[in-house]
Amino acid sequence: MTAWMLIGQAATRHGEQPPKRIIRRAAHQARIPARRYGPATLLTTAAAHLGFGAGSGALYSALVRRSTPLRGMSFGVVVWAASYAGWIPALRLMPAPHRDKPGRVGTILTAHLVYGIALHAALTAGARPAPSDTPAGTGSVG
User: Fold this and answer.
1) Which end of the chain has fewer CB within 10 Å, C or N?
2) What pLDDT does residue 18 have?
3) pTM: predicted TM-score of the whole model, two decimal places
């Protein structure tokens, strides 16, 4: 997801990455000094973004009985909408999508689709096929 966002940032020149911007603005609102390029800001941003993604993924795995690529992508869009059209603008950390730069909106939205696909892939990696309906010992030998 981060790699996709970096590609989008380079292609659309939309400015600072949203996770870092959110952390800096939240720190500013809490009156905690945060440098734009300081190591503490970068580390805090990475930890917060990873933690949020892992927590959201845990919620998905608890809610969805069987993951599919479409369900994963749909969940990614729900996370995007709840965050970028919900609590993030409500806390005045970033503008709502209809007020933000179109390039950034597209990058963030598609990054959440990538997240959903990756989430599905992670949850189904190594998954065993469902056992057959034939009870053990009653199948034909041959």
Assistant:
1) C
2) 83
3) 0.78
